[in-house]
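pls design
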């Protein structure tokens, strides 16, 4: 049975290995390390089957430029399941648990740049993200409100953590 829990320092090497295996490059694992170092992580969860680490998801804090208030926002990135375990719902469990963690931390909306035919099943919508002043656009740029109407208060320019290098 696949279980999901918050990462601990003992998981860092396994999380690097998961990301490198899923993306076949070190870039996403490096991004995880940078986000941890800069203190921008909202939630980082690991999926396990028995004792094997098979998946990972991370949410980081987004801010907005301008002087006005904006809702607490998080970016979902990266997310990875090792190839042998893809298609067995580890990803689904990670997204569900991750959104729960975000909600518990007061996040009111989550933004993702990802597969346009994967994230809508969780409620992410490109049309919801289309009104944002952001470095991304198009069908792969999606948003989900944990607090209905939250994005109506997201009026400034969306700023990703420096770790993203945008
Ligand atoms: C995308 C990913 C995280 C999904 O995790 P998972 O555990 O395989 O997902 P689940 O088993 O919960 O869901 C399976 C569904 O995801 C879909 N899916 C998997 N990879 C996909 C992709 N690249 N694009 C679109 N859909 C994808 C499957 O087609 C399947 O759809 P179905 O339920 O309609 O049959 C995983 O496939 C992965 O790590 N891929 C490589 C890294 C990556 O692309 N990360 C996401 C970046 S946005």
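designed seq:
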């Amino acid at each position: 049975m696949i279980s999901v829990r918050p990462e601990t320092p003992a998981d860092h090497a396994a999380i690097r290995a998961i990301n490198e295996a899923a993306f076949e490059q070190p870039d996403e694992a490096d991004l995880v390390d940078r986000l941890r170092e800069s203190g921008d992580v909202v939630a980082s969860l690991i999926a396990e089957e028995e004792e094997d680490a098979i998946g990972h998801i991370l949410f980081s804090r987004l801010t907005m430029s301008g002087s006005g208030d904006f809702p607490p926002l998080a970016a979902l990135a990266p997310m990875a399941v090792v190839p042998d375990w893809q298609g067995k719902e580890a990803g689904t469990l990670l997204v569900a648990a991750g959104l729960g963690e975000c909600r518990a931390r007061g996040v009111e909306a989550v933004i993702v740049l990802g597969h346009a035919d994967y994230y809508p099943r969780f409620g992410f919508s490109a049309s919801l993200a289309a009104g944002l002043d952001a470095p991304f656009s198009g069908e792969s740029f999606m948003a989900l409100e944990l607090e209905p109407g939250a994005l109506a208060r997201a009026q400034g320019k969306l700023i990703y953590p420096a770790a993203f290098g945008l």
